[in-house]
Amino acid sequence: MEELKPHLANSLPLTPLGLLERSATVFGDCPSIVYNDTTYTWSQTYRRCLQLASSISSDGIARGQVVSVVAPNIPAIYELHFAVPFAGAILNTINTRLDARTISVQLQHGDSKLVFVDHQSRSLVLEAVSLFPPNTKRPPLVLITEDDNGDDYQATVDSKFCCTYEDMVRRGDPEFKWIRPLSEWDPIVLNYTSGTTSSPKGVVHCHRGIYNMVNETLIDWSVPKQPVYLWTLPMFHGNGWAFTWGMAAVGGTNVCLRRFDAAIMYDLIKKHGVTHMCGAPVVLNMLSCSPDNQPLEKPVHILTAGAPPPATVLFKTEALGFVVSHGFGMTESAGLVASCAWKLKWNVLPATDRARLKARQGVRMGGLTEVDVVDPKTGVSVKRDGSTLGEIVMRGGTIMLGYLKDPVTTRECLKDGWFYTGDVAVMHPDGYLEIKDRSKDVIISGGENVSSVEVESVLYTNPAVNEAAVVARPDEYWGETPCAFVSLKAALTTKPTEKEIIGYCRGKMPHYMAPKTVVFMEELPKTSTGKIQKFLLRGIAKSMGSLSCRSTTINGIQSKLNT
């Protein structure tokens, strides 16, 4: 066959941005966003995003520059997922639960040129900006309000903000020609992992990767046209696992809510006929344990990821009428890249067996070329016996471009044609993988990643602490919470209490990262080379049981170590 070469007609860059343009045509008069008493259609959302992009561009934000947003699941953060890249810029969604110091570091590291700030995060972001070094240019701030009264509101806006969000929408051009990427490898988002604040890890994804993630997630979860999607997954978590763009692809209704509350969720499910939702296992626990829970009138599909949901939580959630699917992903993979694809023959198994199977991370999704569990030293696949440990590696069209300004760490995890995740797992004989540990000692608490190293670094700043190690402890509500093992300095006349240590940490870091349990020991267990034996501490924390049923005594813990 003669050699045929790519042509401009068939080689335009892949991007998820055109999905909104299409929805404005196909689903133009259908609801796109519902929030309290506000409802937009897809044609209105498209126009608002164009106007906002026009204002961002006219304010001097250039192609490839970073625009940040600190906001919960409200219409503004959804619109910014299109408006910012429409202007050729890179979107950076920031976790609203972070402290001012961490936000300040992320804004500086990403060199953010503009920051959209929800009114409830006003003080937090102002403090973050105040922490910039002297003579450092601070980005302009745009205030997202819920009481914008029109053209006269600009006169009363806080002087520390350049304008309001709605003011930018109003003055924008609805005929703005959105800026297409020059290459599908152009960055579209910058997302920060929960690494140490002194060395933030900014994950950069391109248009191509996000486009692939949107398609594979919709296909794998079998999302139909025009679903009603309840935003119980924060959009600042990996861009809501790409469902921000995915809902535009299928013309879905985005039901937004500012605060995660079981009673509110049940009310919105009934009021709007919700069909789909996502969230960490803590959301399942919230729904199943709420006094407001009640059997659903119609099934609601819920996709969960993070720490495997406990069997009891799965039982309770599915008994209410939720159809639970479980997957695995990370910031570096742009969303879920493995799912526990369910087989019909498993439906006849006992409930305990079904829960055990559903808790596995599963098999690769279509957007990935390969997923494997390998010996990290040799790169050779481990035995598919469900017991041999190895590291999860993957490659395919949704893997990040790399870490911003961090070539060393990028090279360490992107090597030999694979992305090394740092997650320790086994491969079962049927080809389904299951995570057994995290080599990076990351604790997943309520869907938030907590770095044990960062918590330990704070503990070591306490003048009373001699040694510290942090591991995950089971928690009936949050899935896992940080558990600190601490030895105190010998010369102390007054020893701090558990409550005082926890309070000390809460004063220096986001509250969700602070230990919920502190165990005092005379000496932490170590290897012959002096390295703390965290695997022993993990076993002890696990044996203590869930935080809400704390029964193990400190003497009992010490006796375990002695044996």
Automatic annotation (TrEMBL):
Entry-linked Pfam families:
AMP-binding, AMP-binding_C
The molecule here is called: 4-coumarate--CoA ligase
Which InterPro entries does its entry note?
Answer: AMP-bd_C, AMP-bd_C_sf, AMP-binding_CS, AMP-dep_synth/lig_dom, ANL_N_sf
Q: Which NCBIfam families match?
A: PRK08162.1 (NF006020)
Q: Which PROSITE patterns match?
A: AMP_BINDING (PS00455)
Please report the organism this UniProt entry assigns to the protein.
Answer: Xanthoceras sorbifolium
Domain AMP-binding enzyme C-terminal per the UniProt entry, residue ranges: 454-531
Q: Which residues form the AMP-dependent synthetase/ligase domain?
A: 20-404
Recite the UniProt keywords alphabetically.
Ligase
The similarity annotation says:
Belongs to the ATP-dependent AMP-binding enzyme family.
